[in-house]
Design a protein that fits this description.
This protein is of the alpha+beta class. It is built from five helices and six strands; from the N terminus they run αββααβαβαββ. The N and C termini lie far apart (40 Å).
Length: 157
Amino acid sequence: VEVWMTTEQVPGCEEACEVLRSIFEAGGMQIEPRCLGEQDSYLHIDLTGPDAAETFASHGRMLDALQYLTNLILGRRGVHVRVVLDSEGFRKRREEVLTAMALKYADEVKARQEECEFDPMPPHERRIIHRVLLDDEGVRTYSEGEEPDRRVIIAPR
């Protein structure tokens, strides 16, 4: 995994890693957070170690929950940074899957002229679908529902 900046250059990085280390230590997990840097106003942290694969293998739910908890703790401590957690390239693989699904479903929506509804997903995953289909003149996307059941709808234009 490529490191974009040193820890000292990224505001909030040290605090975020400290929170994560405390959680992993309390859980008896051998996982080490490593700041990759800041991109699009998000602090990206990669989680590695002997327990990382087993802990974060379940469709990213644990990764999303830990990301939410980390952001909540940092916010309450007055550290104004938005953290995105990844482990062993999960986020990249998930983005590729969501991109392929969005394109496939957009084609089906255009062919059938009927809306398509995704299962509920977290905001960062919904943004991927909206971004992928933003320039598609045959469909439009919107989100509906309340968290945690908010979902993306692809509709014909």
